[in-house]
Amino acid sequence: MLLTSETPDAKDYLVYDCEGHLIPCIVSFDTETEEVELSISVMKSSEERNQVVQMFQKITDADGVTKSAPIFVKFRLPGAYAMKNNERI
Fold first, then answer.
1. Where in the chain are the domains?
2. Each residue of 27-39: pLDDT tens digit?
3. Which of 10, 18, 56, 82 suits a disulfide with 89, CB 3.0-4.6 Å?
4. What backbone phi and psi angles, to 5 degrees, belong to 43?
5. DSSP-assigned beta bridge partners for residue 22
């Protein structure tokens, strides 16, 4: 089952690693292949502890306009699993 941030009830799903740690900033998760896509995040500042924000990179389009875009990574995470309403998917 492919879960994405665009799934209508996406907020009801939580994804965990093999030791039960919640994985933040999930963009997609495939329950069959255990493939995770997430955005890279960082702590906002030392004064605002526990506030996580996305890390951005500069990109330049064909017209030469520079913009910022989030960084996404995709990888297989053996043992990862999803839960919905405290039930493992």
1. 2-88
2. 999 999 999 999 9
3. 82
4. -75, 140
5. 16
